[in-house]
C-alpha cells in the first residue's frame, strides 16, 4: 500500500502552487475517487485510456476517453475472450482484483494478489496480448492490455491542453515525472526531468528509455523523496 508520506507529499506540492497529476494504470473506479478526494489537479488512468478532472467550483467531473463508448464495448468483448486464453496458457496468473472497476483495459495480475510468477511468464502474458493485436504494457504488478492507439503520454498531452491550456511539448522541461515500471517508458523518453523510484532497477534491460534520475527509495517513499527535493527548490 502507498505510505501516508506519498499522500502528504502530494498535498504539500499542491499547496506550494505546483500542479499534481497522477499518471496511473489503475482503474476508472479508483480514479474517480482520486480526482474527487485527493490533493490532485486531474489524473490519467488505465495507462492513458482517459483523464478525469474534478471541477471543485462547479462540483462537476470531466471525463475524457481516448475511445468511444461503442469502441470500448467492442473492446471489452475481445478482452474478455483474451482473458480466458491468457489464464489457460499461463498457470498462476489471474485477472486483477480491480478489473471490475476498469472501463477500457484488461489487467492480468502476476504478483499483486497471486504468488509472483517467473518473469518469463510475465513476458508470455504480454506476448499473448500482442498476438491478439492489443497493446501490452508491464507494470510493477500487472500486465495491462488494450485495443487502441494511446498511452500515458498521449492522454497526458490531452489533459494539459484541454484542462490547463498548456502545450506539454513546450513546457516539458518544467515538468517532473516520477515512474516505476516499463509502462512509464513513453514518459521517461519525453520528459528530460523524469525520475524513477528505486524499484525501476528491477526492470534493468527492459526499458527502451530510462529516467534521468533514480530515487534512493522505492514506491511511495521514493515519490516523497522526490517531492521533498522539489519543495527545497
Record the SSE blueprint.
Elements: H1 4-15, H2 28-37, E1 43-45, E2 50-55, E3 60-65, H3 69-89, E4 94-95, E5 106-109, H4 119-131, E6 135-138, E7 142-146, H5 152-162, H6 168-171, E8 177-179, H7 185-190, E9 194-196, E10 213-214, H8 219-231
Parallel strand pairs: 8-9, 9-10
Antiparallel strand pairs: 1-2, 2-3, 4-5, 5-7, 6-7
Notes on the structure:
The structure is a single chain. This protein has 233 residues and is of the alpha+beta class. 39% of the residues lie in helices and 16% in strands. It has helices spanning 4-15, 28-37, 69-89, 119-131, 152-162, 168-171, 185-190, 219-231, and strands at residues 43-45, 50-55, 60-65, 94-95, 106-109, 135-138, 142-146, 177-179, 194-196, 213-214. α1 (4-15) runs parallel beside α8 (219-231). 39% of the residues are buried.
Give a nutshell description of this structure.
Helix content is 39%, strand content 16%. The protein has 233 residues and is of the alpha+beta class.
User: Mean pLDDT score, rounded?
Assistant: 96
Taking the sheet with the most strands, its summary is: 4 strands, antiparallel
Q: What share of the residues lie within helices? A: 25-40%
Radius of gyration, in angstroms, nearest whole number = 17 Å
Arrangement of strands in the largest sheet:
4-5-7-6
SS-derived structural category? alpha+beta
Shape: globular
- Ends apart, CA distance between termini: 29 Å
Determine the number of helices (DSSP H or I, runs of at least 4 residues): 8
Secondary-structure element sequence?
HHEEEHEEHEEHHEHEEH
Strand content: 15-25%
- Say how many strands there are: 10
Low-confidence stretches: none
Amino acid at each position: 500500500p502507498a505510505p501516508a508520506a506519498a499522500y502528504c507529499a502530494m498535498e504539500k506540492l499542491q499547496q506550494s502552487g505546483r500542479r499534481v497529476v497522477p499518471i496511473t494504470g489503475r482503474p476508472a473506479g479508483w480514479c474517480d475517487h482520486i480526482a474527487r478526494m485527493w490533493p490532485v489537479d486531474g489524473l490519467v488512468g488505465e495507462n492513458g485510456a482517459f483523464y478525469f478532472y474534478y471541477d471543485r467550483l462547479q462540483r462537476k467531473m470531466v471525463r475524457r476517453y481516448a475511445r468511444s463508448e461503442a469502441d470500448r464495448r467492442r473492446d471489452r468483448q475481445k478482452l474478455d475472450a483474451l482473458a480466458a486464453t491468457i489464464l489457460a496458457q499461463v498457470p498462476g496468473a489471474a485477472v486483477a482484483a480491480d478489473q471490475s472497476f476498469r472501463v477500457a483495459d484488461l489487467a492480468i495480475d502476476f504478483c499483486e494478489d497471486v504468488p509472483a510468477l517467473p518473469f518469463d511468464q510475465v513476458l508470455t502474458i504480454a506476448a499473448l496480448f500482442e498476438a491478439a493485436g492489443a497493446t501490452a504494457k508491464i507494470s510493477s504488478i500487472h500486465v495491462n492490455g488494450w485495443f487502441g492507439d494511446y498511452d500515458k503520454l498521449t492522454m497526458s498531452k490531452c489533459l494539459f491542453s484541454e484542462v490547463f491550456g498548456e502545450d506539454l511539448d513546450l513546457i516539458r522541461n518544467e515538468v517532473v515525472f516520477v515512474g516505476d515500471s516499463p509502462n512509464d517508458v513513453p514518459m521517461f523518453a519525453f520528459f528530460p526531468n523524469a525520475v524513477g523510484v528505486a524499484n525501476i532497477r528491477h526492470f534493468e534491460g527492459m526499458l527502451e528509455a530510462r529516467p534521468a534520475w533514480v530515487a534512493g527509495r522505492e514506491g511511495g517513499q521514493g515519490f516523497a523523496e522526490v517531492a521533498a527535493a522539489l519543495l527545497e527548490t
